[in-house]
Amino acid sequence: MTTPSSAQHVGTALVTGATSGLGAEFARQLASAGHNLILVARDRARLESVAESLRSAFGVHVEVLGADLTNPEQRATVEERLASTEHPVSYLVNNAGYGLAQEFEKNSVDDEERMLEILATVPMRLSHAALGGMLARGSGTILTVASIAGGAPLGMYAAAKTWPLSFSRWANAHYRHRGVTFSAVAPGFVRTEFHARLGIERSDMAPKWMWLNADFVVRSALRAAARGRGLSVPSIRYKLVWALMKVAQPLILVAVARSSRAESAKVAG
Ligand SMILES: NC(=O)c1ccc[n+]([C@@H]2O[C@H](COP(=O)([O-])OP(=O)(O)OC[C@H]3O[C@@H](n4cnc5c(N)ncnc54)[C@H](OP(=O)(O)O)[C@@H]3O)[C@@H](O)[C@H]2O)c1
């Protein structure tokens, strides 16, 4: 392994899902703050190009780890890097993830299991791999990208996203006094490749005012983690949505039941 090159090096951050969207933006903002980086995603060629642009823009050292995090052997290389004491990782961003386009019963159970894995099992395993060294060094940050959807009963994706919300809040309370901060960010709709990968037009998904930019979401998430917060919800409008969701859970279930009754009437008719 080569020696980190940055003069203002403040530690090494590992970001999953760094080829696009929020992950690429986490990598950019962490690099601009002087972190050396390890970038993880499946598309290695694209990761190399992100890495090259960060090296030349910020003079930081960037490693590339091409891995499908739902593949146990490939994921093991990432877990090993997180547990390594050589140029140890002081900042982990669990960001990689995706949704599924179809309804729960229409997807194969294997596809549903893989989604649950990337959104919950993978961040749990990577956090576990990083935590031992961070506790031994008495410092570290583990930031996991959840979703505002995780605050309400809104399907499998939302159910999987409740994991980082619950776990990060518990782990932050449990480990913070030993120097390790856990933080979950719960964004609303963000302009990334997420919806295009699902084959959904943004305009069909939500009105314009509901869309946030990745740079804003990432800046608020990094700021909240730096302040030791276990949970952050970027933007005033989504803080309001979050508060409403908490009181309106029974109404959300009624709306879900109504729309699925209307759906089944269409199917029956
Ligand atoms: N966009 C939104 O509205 C929104 C809202 C709330 C939460 N989120 C969450 O934000 C996170 C980032 O998503 P995004 O919106 O930035 O979407 P995105 O632009 O599609 O980025 C997803 C990233 O995850 C990587 N990835 C997907 N599956 C992977 C796997 N099996 N192994 C390794 N890497 C994998 C992708 O890279 P490769 O294809 O190269 O592997 C890509 O870099 C996700 O956890 C998502 O659930 C998004």
UniProtKB/TrEMBL annotation:
Molecular-function annotations in GO: oxidoreductase activity
Ketoreductase domain sequence ranges: 11-193
Entries under InterPro entries matching the protein: KR_dom (IPR057326), NAD(P)-bd_dom_sf (IPR036291), SDR_fam (IPR002347)
GO cellular component, one term: membrane
Keyword Oxidoreductase in record: yes
Alphabetical list of SUPFAM superfamilies matching this protein: NAD(P)-binding Rossmann-fold domains (SSF51735)
Keyword vocabulary terms for this entry: Oxidoreductase
A Pfam family annotated for this UniProt entry: adh_short
Classification via PANTHER family: DEHYDROGENASE/REDUCTASE SDR FAMILY MEMBER 7B, SHORT-CHAIN DEHYDROGENASE-RELATED
Family membership: Belongs to the short-chain dehydrogenases/reductases (SDR) family.
Protein's recorded name: Ketoreductase domain-containing protein
